[in-house]
Amino acid sequence: MSSRCLYACDSAQSPPACGMMWHSWPVEIRDALTGAVCRPLGRNLVLSVPADSFRMLLIQRR
Amino acid sequence: MPMHLIRGAAVLAVAVALCSAVGAATDLSDPAEPWKTARAGITEQVPPPFEPLTVAADRANPQVSCWGRSYTLGAPLPVQIESLGISLLAGPIRVVLRQGGESTVLEGRPVQLEAQRQDRVEFSGQMQVGEITVSTPCSIEYDGLVDVDLTLSAAQPAQVQQLSVQIPVSPEVALFCHYSTQWGSYGYERVDELGESGLSRPWTASWWIGDHYRGLTFVTDTSGGWTGDSEQAFRLTREPDCVLLCANIIGEPTVIEGERRYRIGLQATPGKPLPVGWHGRQVGHASSEPTQEYARELLEERGTNIALLWHDSARFFSYPEPQDAEVFRQVVKTYHDAGLRCVYYITLSGVGLNSEVFRRNREQWLMTRPDGGPLFGHQSDNPDVAAADTSSYSSVCPASDFADWLVWAVDRAMAEYDLDGVYIDNPGPYYCQNQAHGCATRGARTHPYFAVRDLHKRLYTVVQAHKPGTGLVWEHNSRTSNSLNLTFVDIYSDGEHFRVKSKGTPEQMTRTLLDISGTGRQWGAQPAMLCSALNTREQYTWWMLARLLPFGNVMFSHPGWMDFSVYQPVLRARLDFGLNRVPVSWFTPEAVPEWFAYQPEELAVGGYVAQDGRALVTVSNLTDDFQALRVPVAGIERELGGPVEIRDALTGAVCQPLGRNLVVSIPADSFRMLLIQRR
Q1: Does B304 lie at the interface with A, CB-CB under 8 angstroms?
Q2: Preceding peptide of B667 cis, ω within 30°
């Protein structure tokens, strides 16, 4: 079974950004609400998060 | 038996033809220079969706009509111009000439109709003012461009104190103004926000004045021969009965010796209708080495159905001949098999330094500075620099016969690689002082607006000839919108001003810019804002999409330059709705229909309604505060013909009404996309 976790982040800045190091182990990260794949930009996962809002991510081993 | 022989022979003939086509690969640097006599893209036929010109000559002022527009002719300039059924002018366009201390207003004089073809009508007028003869040889073509040589001539040297062209635009139409000179300054203005003194500008090549749906372009191609106060070369003022654009060509005593011509372009916009399914044309960068899986993913997961093939596969920069013809054919086939169209990178102002055809024609083709050096490119700082690699390039001028080579080259590439069109980078027009091909009018820079328009017309003709109805010209028009070009463009990508490289920021995108160039309605082309505005500014992804989507502007997608996880479900939702297949009615924020009676007003709303009663609506919060959309469900149900179900188009979540209203929370600088359909 794939290992899974849910990750949510938020920021009160406008317009904010949230960065998270891309894991070296093979995972696939998707927006848990839309199913869209979140691709790394270079070595980082980079997500745009509206002010006072959130993103929910589904991360699973490939 | 005879039948078998005949069939066999027929099959063989077809096979030979196919082999010939597959094996053919034109050498674009062929020493025989076949492009010089090819006349590629030159025809008297009118390519759809343009329509043949019609002429109503049975009146004092003849009227020439093209798609969507009509021009009531007069000398020296038209007396009325209509676009989409609305009059653009509050009165005749006039020329004021002051000579010998007396001012004469020239307007509405008779014209002489001359050549009349379906693609082009020629006419002229002639007037005498004191010692000066004013003549106006003119043409109008099917794109609606009126091309005028405003000509002053004098048998003996004669002094003129003033020459100005005055265009009284209807105040109902003159809501916005967009002016620009490529590589010069530009502006997107609301006319009602101009001060009491109006707007004064130095010579500026292109002016457009209009509303949300139509407008009028005025173009000149050089400041050479303009005299007087350079800061007042153009004036835009609000008058009691019109908004007046004055081009003050001669503003101080100036001697006319022999003949002096000023070339003027007038074009009502929009230039053409757009086809069913245009809202679903979704453009993106694509690999030059695609696998079948990659191509399938590009369409099915990324929602990109038009693939840009970059110049990395070409023999030289902006040289539409691939390094490996067979490999390139397979690339195109791979995308076609997956259901995508392919366009190939070219520029209208540059070509590879290493190409033999450039080396042979360098002196003639070069786009130059006053010192004769290339205006830009790898030899612009040092003409002796050797071309380093296949991507090295030089500036070349579209007013030279480089244009003949480029159209011919695109024609060959379209024929031999089954391409669907071109992506135009650097369309210009920039400026040139190379007298070898006729630039540097009266010693000043020539901004070849007319030559660049002619080149667009020929490229559009070639693309449509090879792919009727589906061919594509997609243009990166940088910071400004020029109707002479955009009329012959299917998709345009502006927004370069917001890039880091341009020292800009997405926050400089104003509502006025979106009103003028955000929807494409005024040009008759599809807007696809440059994604590079987001490069290294990924935090603006929601912010940018919130501003573009209500205007129907589907950003050029590049997963490496944005948080594509925000954009991907948007692109998929649009294709799932059928925007690439079905006819839809479309509304944008300036005119949201009554059935979507939303609050608060600060929100921006745009959407599509299909004939089967479905709607896809984007609601954007362009403020920095929390907002909640409230809209009565009853109005929506009346419009769509019965009870509806409303879902978040990106997550599929049902949006339940609260009481009688649909209530949707929208974060600051963000958007929600709603799918509304009958239960």
Answers
A1: no
A2: no
Looking from the CA of B617 toward its CB, the CA atoms found within 13 Å total 26
CATH number of B54-269: 2.70.98.10
Cβ of residue B543 closer than 8 Å to a chain A Cβ: yes
Query: The tokens of B78 are what?
Result: 């038209």
Residue B149 neighbours by CB under 8 Å, 6+ apart: B135, B136, B137, B138, B261, B262, B263, B264
Give the span between the Cα atoms of B270 and B51, in whole angstroms. Answer: 14
In this structure, are residues B431 and B452 in contact, taking their beta carbons and an 8 Å threshold? Answer: no
What per-residue confidence (pLDDT) applies to B387?
57
Closest-CA distance, B400 to chain A, in angstroms, reads 43
Q: Is B564 on the interface with A (CB under 8 A)?
A: yes
Residue B567's SS3 state is helix
Which of B 430-459 lie inside 8 A of A, CB atoms?
none
Q: Where in chain B is the domain with CATH 2.60.40.1180?
A: 586-678
HSE of B185, CA atoms in CB hemisphere, 13 A: 8
Contact A48 B624 (CB under 8 A): no
Residue B564 structure tokens: 């594509």
CB-based burial label for A3 (10 Å; 0-12, 13-18, 19+): exposed
CATH class of B586-678: mainly beta
Of residues B54 and B391, more confidently modeled: B54
Give the whole-angstrom CA distance, residue B72 versus residue B80: 5
pLDDT band at residue A3 using 50, 70 and 90 as cut-offs: very low
Is the separation of the CB atoms in B267 and B208 below 8 Å?
Answer: no
pLDDT one-digit tens code per residue, B284-328: 999 999 999 999 999 999 999 999 999 999 999 999 999 999 999
Instruction: Print the domain residue range for A50.
Output: 4-61
Query: Which of the four pLDDT bands, split at 50, 70 and 90, describes residue B506?
Result: confident
